[in-house]
Design a protein that fits this description.
Layout lengths: L1 E5 L5 H5 L8 E5 L2 H6 L2 H4 L3 E6 L3 H11 L3 E9 L2 E7 L5 E8 L13 E5 L3 H13 L10 H5 L3 E4 L5 E5 L5
Parallel strand pairs: 3-6, 7-9
Antiparallel strand pairs: 1-2, 4-5, 5-6, 8-9
Length: 171
C-alpha cells in the first residue's frame, strides 16, 4: 500500500512535470494508520447478514419471539421488497430477512450451514428453547456431532436454516 508524501528523493511531481510550489510529491509506503483504516475488518462499522425468504412473517416470529432478538428495523415496498432486521444489543451485527413481492423461493443450504449463538447461561438457553418449542420448532439433531457433544441445541427456522444455541462463551 502506498501514499503520496512530501520530501526529498525521487518525486512524482517531477516525473509528471507538475510542481506544487516548493513541495515535491513522491510515493512512500503508507503509514500503519492508513493500512488499518483501509483494512475492511478494522474500517467496517457494521456487519449485516441478509437472506431472502418466502415466509417473512414466520421467520420474523422465529427470530423475534423465539430467539428473542431485537427488531431494529423494518421496511415495506422498497423496490418490491419487504424486510425486517434483527440485531444483538450493540447492533454492530445484525440479520436481515427480505421477501420479494412476487415471491422469493430460497431452498435452505446443507444442514451444516449454521447461525451459532453462544449463550453460556443455562437458564437463558432453556428459555429460548422453550419459546421455540411453543412456536412449533423443536430441537433437531445436529449434522456435526460436536454440537451434541457440547450439549448445544440445534433448531431449524421456517425455511430450514439451522440455528445453534451453544452453551459456551465462544472463541
Amino acid at each position: 500500500m502506498w501514499a503520496f508524501g512530501a520530501g526529498r528523493g525521487p518525486h512524482l511531481g517531477a516525473r509528471l512535470g507538475a510542481r506544487l510550489g516548493s513541495a515535491r510529491l513522491h510515493l512512500v509506503p503508507a503509514p500503519p494508520i492508513v493500512r488499518r483504516v483501509l483494512n475492511l475488518a478494522l474500517a467496517a462499522t457494521q456487519l449485516r447478514v441478509a437472506r431472502a425468504t418466502d415466509q417473512l412473517q414466520a421467520v420474523v416470529a422465529f427470530y423475534g419471539e423465539g430467539l428473542g432478538l431485537e427488531e431494529i428495523g423494518r421496511f415495506t415496498g422498497h423496490a418490491g421488497y419487504d424486510g425486517v432486521m434483527f440485531g444483538l444489543p450493540d447492533r454492530s451485527y445484525h440479520l436481515e430477512f427480505t421477501q420479494k413481492a412476487d415471491g422469493s423461493p430460497c431452498p435452505a443450504p446443507s444442514q451444516d450451514n449454521l447461525l451459532v449463538f453462544y449463550v453460556p447461561d443455562a437458564e437463558a438457553r432453556q428459555k429460548v428453547g422453550d419459546r421455540l418449542i411453543r412456536l412449533g420448532h423443536g430441537p433437531v439433531a445436529a449434522e456435526n456431532p460436536w454440537w451434541e457433544k457440547i450439549e448445544a441445541l440445534t433448531f431449524e427456522d421456517p425455511d430450514g436454516w439451522r440455528v445453534v444455541i451453544a452453551p459456551t462463551t465462544g472463541i
